[in-house]
Amino acid sequence: MIVTEKSFSEQTYWEEIARCKTQFVNNGEDPLLNPYLRKEVAESWIRSKNNGVFPWTSYSKYYLTEEEWGVLKEQNERLIHIAQPLISNYLGLASTNGHSLELFDPSGAFLLGIHINISSTPVLSIVFNESTTGTTAHGLATYHKKPFQLIGPENYLDVWQNMICSAAPILDEMGEVLGTLALVQDMGEKPWEKNRSNLHIHSLGWVSSLAEAIGNQIKIQNSYDVLNQVNNDLRKATETLKIILEFIDEGVITIEPNGRILSSNHEGSRILNVNHGEIRGRNIGEFLLPRSALMDYVADKKTVDYMEEYVVNGREEKQYLVSLRPVYKQGNDELDFAILRFNHSDKINALVNTRSGAVAKFRFEDIVGQSEAMLKAKALARRFARTRENVLLLGESGTGKELFAQAIHNSHRPGGPFIAVNCAAMPRNLIESELFGYESGSFTGAEKNGRPGKIELANGGTLFLDEIGDMPIELQAVLLRVLQDKMVMRIGGRNYRQVDFRLITATNQDLKLSAQERKFREDLYFRISVLNIEIPPLRSRGFDIAILAEHFIENYAKRVGLPAAVISPEAKRRILEYNWPGNVRQLENAMIYAVNLSEEGQIMLSHLPKELSEKRTALPMVSEKECDKPEELFSMKDLEKVTIKKALERAGNSVAIASDLLGISKTTLYRKLKEHNIHY
Q1: Which domain holds residue 628?
Q2: Checking CA distances to 85, which of 68, 240, 341, 560 falls within 20 to 30 Å?
Q3: Is the pLDDT at 595 greater than 90, yes or no?
Q4: Looking at residues 525-549, what average pLDDT do you find?
């Protein structure tokens, strides 16, 4: 509310307000009921009185300490810096008319200005608010966030009863008060008789304009700060991105829709074989084959992952997997630029192999067994693992040939991929594409970007071809060429790709006989069988059977969260005497079956699979080579000696178990051992 000229000139107006304040302070009369007093002023009086402030209070005791004043100036540094020159320009005008121009912070602390005829006490460190000096114009302007004017007795302190104060808030971008500018006019005695109404009526508009000008300057400065901060953050982000791009081992290149190169990291420049400082402005098409579809994808604004491309450097062509990401102009779908990422195909293949489980997990230490036959096979495999020659693993199904292949790989090329292919399990019409891969569009159903074959994926590692005897004869010639030249061409391709891998093959067939019968290429047989290892069947591994059974029980129980079961003596005897035609794989399955049927942590004979629990299987017949004599007929004594040895081996040199397997007493077995001079 602005005081009108009429009210300013009426003595009654001044006296009625003064009387209202006296009645309020002394007698508790409600100032809100007085028609001469504005509501905002009355409410401020009430707050002031409730704060323990009275009109006769002196404000001289509300000083800030020097430290507090220093903090205050620092907090309001921008406000003071911008307001000071503007205030200085008007101080001369104000002081010649007996006025003062002052700047306060939101708490009412005095920041700038010169007081005229208020007090001889320095005021550069005094706080003026409802808790210290009661109602003031700058306090109301701060409280209500709008310009305010108080006349004479509306000011709460008696010392200001002849003052008129006009104040306006300085607001920030969010409408919050940064400070308040106040113009104080000393009207002297009987101000209603003074001809100054015109000046004080326009003073509120003048101080409001000045406060708005200061606020605008602060907003502009804040905008500059924000812009500078954004630019600084953008610069940091750009520099960080450049550094990150240099750390990665992929080529990252940005191009315009027409192929013009905008930027590249150092790896991208290296891939294109161009000096890093000279790559900008070149066209990506210069480095691609004429048949490349990359720019077609750019024109179509397509997103592409791992598309095979050849980068041409002179006469040399190198293959890379290129990913494409279009970037659109802001506000529409028009292509602004495209980002290309170049990966060497070997690195992607290694990643694919890792994620698809093409990793050898087993080492020689993981192959369980202490029998003479098994120790011999492991020793031979360890020796062969040191070389780069092809290895052929011979043995029945289920004997653990892949475990040996993985162990050999982990001794020779542990960092490379281990690619296993079962030639018998793969459909005949798919094995060629699986092994050799194919280019895009080679046949109906082929992936649009082509696909690497198992041989290509094995580059830098090991290719394990299980059941090699079941490979189609027509593919054997192609495999032989790959082994000879260390080059592979995809189906539908025109370029050979260099490959470097170690070949390990496995079979349960007699490949030599198959070669003689022309069911297997003889030249391929000789190529893959440079080093042969025979994996013994489980039935010839003696007490390894019991060791493996306990190993499988413990592993399975741990995997499913069950306590490890103990094999009863009766069940162990049956496990040891069984022939195990399915070898280690059959034994593992039998133990899983038994654990799931076991009760109270013990595996009984009835818990074993049907083929083990129903009837007793005799020990296998003794072979001719196991006898000490070369004659065609053997004496009963020789057969007895060999049978006892075999029983001891199967029982892990346990006389109790061996005697049970033989169906004789321990006493009889001890006598027979002494008789045949058998040491165990």
Answers
A1: 620-680
A2: 68
A3: yes
A4: 92
